[in-house]
Known about the structure:
alpha+beta
Amino acid sequence: MIRRRAIVTGMVQGVGFRWATREQAQALGVAGWARNRADGSVEVEVEGDADAIDRMLAWLRQGPPGSEVHALDVSDAAPDGDDGFRIRQTT
């Protein structure tokens, strides 16, 4: 089980990015959360097996239709046993 934190920049707010991220995470069996940030980016933490996390990060690099991802900054995070995928409040 691994966990990754990703900051997604570009046209990623106001386009359904977090909801599409939740749908993709659920399809891949990935736990975690997503939230908008005040700077216009979206922050995502995902936890699961390495293959599912790799596929989730690849999806985040593309984003859903209507979004435009400019960059994805990924860092390691400690697994915390999240169950399911949530959308959190904006920071």
